[in-house]
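Lecture notes, unit on binding sites. The following record was shown on slide 14. It pairs a sequence with cobalt (II) ion.
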Amino acid sequence: MVTVKSEQEQEIMRENAHLLSEILRQITDAAREGVSTHELDMLGEKLIRAVGAEPAFKGYRGYPASVCTSLNDEVVHGIPSKRRVLKKGDVLSIDTGIRRRGYFADLATTMVIGDDASDRVKKLLHVAWEALDRGVAQAQSGNRVSDISHAIGSYVESQGYSVVKTFVGHGIGRAMHEDPQVPNYGPAGKGTKLRPGMVLAIEPMVKEDPAEVEVADDGWTARAPNGGLAVHVEEMVLITEHGPERLSRSR
Ligand code: MF3
Ligand code: CO
């Protein structure tokens, strides 16, 4: 079901998204060489509970952690582990969510461990952020949901990369995943007509490998089957009469 949020609901969701932006920032600050992804999960859960929220991911369809940590050729849903210790040059996607006052927030960013990102990583990351910006710019009242999809997918492909098709962005509110689905590909002009008060999680997943992702034996980790690098960024956007309002900041 597509839901339209009242002013009061919008205010709670704005607050939640701001809180989660700050939590994500603190997790990225802690993500350094020598730190395990399990430690990032512990930190995330502590920070989430400290603002009176619950981790949205923990227990979601059996997912075992509060944060998803996906490294290098892993695109999304990587499970934190004591054995995954961050190394210089690792490309780390951090995805986390909260539920607070009855509403969900969901955000992701991708970063490089250590200071000197290679040009290869910089270019991939630039394309992902630019794809997100182009998607957000289409989140206008009167547009259709696939105008967002098309803006993201056509740009990413024009840059020689590929988007994930198995996983999609989504409406968000009292449920973490509400309608409409927001794919990162497809023709413009299709699907739900966007209206003020709708909140969308827009999340380009961009990879070097043209092949579609495969899910690992752990049942969660989605990775590029032929290797290469993959990144994931996600923000929440409120559709307003005056254009898109970014509720969260993931960079
Ligand atoms: N952030 C993901 C999404 O947008 C949800 C993570 S799935 C979970 O759909 F199991 F890790 F929670
Ligand atoms: Co999401």
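Take-home: The chain is about 30% helix and 25% strand.
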